[in-house]
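Usage

Read records sequentially. Each one opens with the input sequence:
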Amino acid sequence: MKCNSGRVLGLTVLALAIACVFFQLGCPKSGEVKIGAVLPMTGSAAGYGKWMQRGIDLAVEDVNKAGGINGKKLKVITEDSKSDNTAGVNAATKLIDVDKVPAIVTGLTGVTQAIIPVTDKSKVILFTAATAPGLTEQGKYVFRNATNMQNEVDRMIGACKAELGLKRVALIYINNAVGVWFGGYFKKSFEAVGGKVTESESFQPDASDFRAQLQKIKTSNPDGLYIQGYKQNGLIMKQAWELGLKCKFLGATDMELPEVLQTAGPAAEGVVYTKAAFDPNQGTVDIASFTAKYKQLYGEDPEVFGATVYDATRIIASAMTKAKANPDKMKEYILSIKNYPGVSGQTTFMPNGDVLKPVEMKQIRSGSYVEFGK
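and closes with the structure output:
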């Protein structure tokens, strides 16, 4: 009797040991498939993180209502990049090593660049909403379904010449990967078509006083000031206004971060900026459904980054359904996508994992974001 009891106990211990090893190897819970997200939930770009998380949440709900991934529920584990490259790498490493995710959604150029070596080494699909050119060419498993910042800058250069009549433009930009690229590319391209960059100034991501840079810019007497700075845009415009800098303010998508208008107040009136073309109240049935759900949950219209990350999450889910988390087969599937009817716009992937999407011009008028020229 003792012998039999000991044998049963031994087999039970062995079974528990095998179960523990199986769990430690990252076997997901039955009925659940995980992917990761590294988003700027805090820090200078936290507004983007809020929009992106909303897009992910809506995508997860819709994927699971439609049957999930081969019958299993999709779960997205979000980690905070804190708008910081090192924190982003730590977050991605945790998602890969601990959570065993086969794909990660992210945003911000610097964070994306920092994460790429980590995801590529582990053959993890990285889907970014960052806008700097060349990102998808830095890794084998990197994709983007957001507009390219080069398209936005080119559109602004065209507007300076044709619609705004600005020949002398000053620059102020955040000292990070996308900001430095922006400053160099605009100066080279604008001056190649006859324009003049009167002054080019940068600032650190945690800066709050821009008066020294703005005084230099004021002295250069520009027709326009092109700003690239996340939520700091509002403070830059406010301080420029207080210094008596009389010129047209120019910018990009981050002019629609809520903090910008709240901080700038009347200084933001008339600012002209570029943004990926997106109208939540026009288009397909899918866009209408997405917009209705978004407004019901959050009390406002969706914007392009939430829509872009919604599409990215659904594309990853579709790739996992087809390829069962095999990274090379997932990559092959994503590259085969043509005219995907996303809520952020029709999407076709190029061989380098990037996409081309149209850019629109907008303006802040009487506290509202409106189409430029209307």
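Summary fields computed downstream for this record:
- Confidence is low (pLDDT under 50) at residues 8-29.
- Residues 2-24 form the longest helix (23 residues).
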